[in-house]
Amino acid sequence: MKYKLSEIVEIISGGTPKKTIKDYWNGEIPWITIKDFRGKYPETVTANISKKGLEKSPVKLTDENDVLISARGTVGEVMMVHKGYTFNQSIYGLRANKDKVIAEYIYYWLLANKQIFTKNVHGSVFDTITKKTFDYIQVDVPNIRKQKEIITKLNIIDAKINTNRQVNDNLAV
């Protein structure tokens, strides 16, 4: 069945606590920027915010398996996150409507269709997508059983890629 992307995910905006307020930073809550997009899940993050930074800013916490997509500058990079991450305003969080789609299916679909986003950018200084962009993107969503089959096959490929990356990293040392 075909859906607008905005019909099958909740779109969550990111944010940044005020950098001038030191109490908002160097806490225990991971805060993701585009620099942290290096794989399916974040391996490290460049910054952490405090509980106070979370409470006093537009930052929101992720749920398990939310999908993040870069929305400004390097548009269309994707990753999944576990519960408890935050992210800046150059990133959107996509929370899957579990009645219609599996979050991991959205991740793989976005990964395979990055060019849709890179072709729909605007902005004079930085390439940008907006929340409205998700209203124009059509996603063909098979039934949940078929989504699970697709995810299983792609996870096997991901595991092999990750193993090869680890071997290459060891050889480079």
What would you say this structure looks like, in words?
With 173 residues, the chain is of the alpha+beta class. It has two domains: 2-141, DNA methylase specificity domains (Adenine-n6-DNA-methyltransferase TaqI, Chain A, domain 2); 142-172. The chain has helices spanning 5-8, 51-55, 103-112, 114-118, 133-136, 144-172; strands spanning 2-4, 9-13, 25-32, 47-49, 66-70, 78-81, 86-87, 91-96, 138-140. Strands 2-8-5-6 form a four-stranded antiparallel beta sheet. Strands 4-3-7 form a three-stranded mixed beta sheet. A hairpin with a 7-residue loop joins strand 5 and strand 6 (78-81). The longest helix has 29 residues, at 144-172. Its EC number is 3.1.21.3.
How do the strands and helices of this protein lay out in sequence?
Blueprint: E1 2-4, H1 5-8, E2 9-13, E3 25-32, E4 47-49, H2 51-55, E5 66-70, E6 78-81, E7 86-87, E8 91-96, H3 103-112, H4 114-118, H5 133-136, E9 138-140, H6 144-172
Largest sheet: 4 strands, antiparallel
CATH fold field value of the largest domain: Adenine-n6-DNA-methyltransferase TaqI, Chain A, domain 2
- Percentage of helical residues? 25-40%
CATH superfamily of the largest domain: DNA methylase specificity domains
Distance between the termini: 48 Å
Q: What fraction of the residues are assigned to beta strands by DSSP?
A: 15-25%
Architecture (CATH level 2) name of the largest domain:
Alpha-Beta Complex
